[in-house]
Specification:
Leucine-rich Repeat Variant; two-stranded antiparallel sheet; Rossmann fold; PWI domain; globular; four-stranded parallel sheet; 30 helices; ATP-binding
Length: about 625
């Protein structure tokens, strides 16, 4: 059974099980105790405050998150208390204690909104309160569930509003830097929201804020993983503070060849610059800006990525088209407009973030137990927001969803049910937010593989639950930019490291290498093949006959060592070994490297002659792939 079908069957089985609420409602006595602790905390001395706050955290730990229900509103009032500094300090201490004792992240949905209050307290007249609030805010940032860190961003950005005090802005910028440095790839999804706000702060009237915003922008933009533009990022940032540098920066970018996929983080820092370029007076700058937009837009693989930026770029290009007199410039603008229009109307369904939000909330709602206490609505909404973040970043790995959702679901259901809910949410949300691709109607021939698989390399997700269908006897080209993971995928398939790909016991896959290890240079050809793992024969005569069939002479078979072979003969040797492994699939990584014209032709004819063996080929030789 294909992996996707198995997953759906498993999901149906999970959903059919009734989830039971395991959280208990605290008694009146316990609720009264919680209120008494908060009252005592508001009146506590500096020496006793931390101990009383720890008492509150211990009470919540013992009784669950519902123990916050009778005191949460009071804490909100206390932290904003204008007249009593001790009351404010008590609320800050409570937040620190609840963050430290966060019940495996279960208190996060209720504590995170206090970040806005902690930022506001940076303008407090009491230095001790200001310092405690700063410590509390950084504590929340450092201890949040990693994939939930983007949920902090809206509260932090509130602290960068025009009406906010400069002290509040300074800590807000520091927290954004801390998020970027701590969570790196998990923070990238927030960059499109962060960049415009931080850009505005780079024009703040307070010199300290302006300087800090520039520093923060550098830290945030350093996460953008696009080698085409990374060397220009400092210049792009400078253009925010110094618009007069825009023409020069556009000139530099105009001389760049763009080859890497363009994502939302890249667009978030490039679109403001290119929009300014289109508004420059000089026609050559308008033309180059349009050319860069055209080139970069062609490298946007997912129309969903471009959607938030089209309302900025399309009107700007249309305006230039209407006013520019130079026909060459107008032609470049029209090409850029045509490329953006294709992204706007890709021919497949594209969901907005709001549409995805509604689909995620609907999907998770179907999985929740009935008759939940309304206090848990905050937890559920937090889960919805985390799931939406994962969907937007196209992170559909089971372990990530379990780590991201299960801790919060454990607030009201058992650990086993929480893990099952996370897995079901993954399947339902991915299906809901992913537009359906038209299926290829190619049913001729035997299916070797029809599955979904995922692949990651270090912290980088290369492929997310990607559909793969292979027919017996076909030849498939594996294409992509340098460094995108082609060889990594081939080796992972050969080493049975690709989740969802049929195991070697079902499908024999062989990675064909002609760059044979130098330690084998003195090994005779027959001995080399017999010693290779996976070769099913141990008969030297059978190996000799196969090598002769592949064009080796008797002298080569009996007298030559591997080190004496040319690149072409090493390729033939590797193919002969693969055939003696009874391969169903050959994985060929740049097979024509170091081959002359004659051997390339031989390899083409050989692969075309394989009627029962499938080939997956990586090659920069387009002529070879075409044949």
């Amino acid at each position: 059974m294909p992996a996707a079908a198995a997953a759906k069957n498993n999901q149906s089985e999970i959903q059919s099980k009734k989830m039971t609420i395991v959280s208990t409602i605290p008694s009146e006595v316990e609720n009264k105790k919680a209120k008494e602790i908060v009252t005592k905390l508001a009146a506590a001395s500096d020496a006793d405050r931390e101990a009383v706050a720890a008492e509150l955290a211990a009470h919540v730990k013992a009784n669950g998150v519902l123990a916050l229900k009778p005191v949460l509103e009071q804490l909100k009032k206390d932290i904003a208390h204008k007249k009593n500094a001790g009351t404010r300090a008590g609320a800050v201490a409570a937040i620190v204690a609840l963050t430290n004792e966060n019940l495996n992240h279960q208190t996060e949905p209720y504590v995170i909104p206090f970040v806005a209050n902690l930022l506001e307290l940076q303008a407090d007249k009491q230095t001790a309160i200001k310092e405690a609030a700063e410590k509390a805010a950084k504590n929340i940032v450092e201890k949040i569930n990693p994939t939930a860190n983007p949920l902090l961003v809206p509260f932090i950005l509130e602290g960068l509003g025009n009406s906010c005090k400069w002290q509040t802005k300074m800590l807000s910028l520091e927290l954004l830097e801390l998020l970027a440095k701590t969570y790196k790839t998990d923070f990238i999804v927030a960059i499109p929201d962060v960049v415009p706000v931080v850009s505005d702060c780079m024009w703040d009237t307070k010199a300290d804020v302006k300087k800090k915003a520039t520093e923060s922008m550098g830290v945030i933009c350093s996460l953008v993983n696009n080698k085409d533009i990374e060397r220009f990022i400092p210049a792009v940032i400078q253009c925010i503070n110094h618009p007069e540098n825009v023409p020069e920066t556009i000139h530099l970018l105009g001389a760049t060849t763009f080859v890497q996929e363009v994502d939302s983080a890249t667009l978030s820092i490039m679109v403001p610059l290119l929009n300014r370029g289109l508004n420059e007076r000089a026609t050559p700058i308008k033309r180059k800006s349009a050319l860069i937009i055209d080139n970069m837009s062609k490298l946007v693989d997912d129309p969903d990525v471009a959607a938030p930026f089209l309302p900025v770029l399309l009107p700007a290009l249309e305006h230039v088209q209407d006013i520019v007199a130079d026909p060459e410039c107008r032609g470049v603008v029209q090409k850029a407009l045509a490329t953006l229009q294709r992204l706007k109307n890709p021919g497949t369904e594209v969901f907005t973030k709001e549409q995805k939000k509604a689909k995620v909330e609907s999907s998770i709602k179907e999985l929740l137990p009935e008759n939940m206490d309304e206090f848990f609505n905050t937890t559920v909404q937090f889960m919805n927001d985390v799931a939406l973040t994962l969907c937007v970043s196209k992170n559909f790995f089971k372990d990530v969803w379990t780590q991201s959702l299960a801790p919060y679901a454990k607030t009201f259901i058992s650990a086993e049910d929480a893990n099952n809910l996370a897995f079901s949410a993954l399947n339902k949300c991915e299906e809901a937010v992913t537009p359906k691709d038209p299926e290829e109607e190619d049913d001729e021939g035997e299916d070797l593989c029809n599955c979904e698989f995922s692949l990651a390399y270090g912290a980088k997700i290369l492929l997310n639950r990607t559909a793969l269908r292979l027919k017996r006897g076909r030849r498939y080209g594996l294409c992509g930019a340098n460094g995108c993971g082609k060889s990594t995928l081939m080796r992972a398939i050969a080493n049975e490291q690709v989740e969802g790909f049929p195991p070697r016991s079902e499908l024999k896959t062989v990675y064909v290498e002609h760059d044979i290890d130098g330690s084998e240079a003195d090994t005779p050809l027959v001995d080399f093949i017999l010693a290779s793992e996976g070769v099913e024969t141990k008969d030297p005569e059978q190996v000799r006959k196969i090598l002769l069939e592949y064009g080796f002479s008797e002298a080569m078979v009996t007298k030559m060592a591997i080190g004496e072979l040319s690149g072409g003969w090493k390729m033939k040797l590797a193919l002969a070994r693969a055939m003696l492994m009874n391969a169903d699939i050959l994985l060929l990584d740049e097979p024509t490297n170091h081959l002359d014209v004659v051997n390339v032709a031989w390899l083409e004819n050989y692969l075309l002659g394989l009627k029962t063996v499938t080939s997956i080929i990586v090659s920069h030789d387009s002529g070879f792939l075409d044949h």
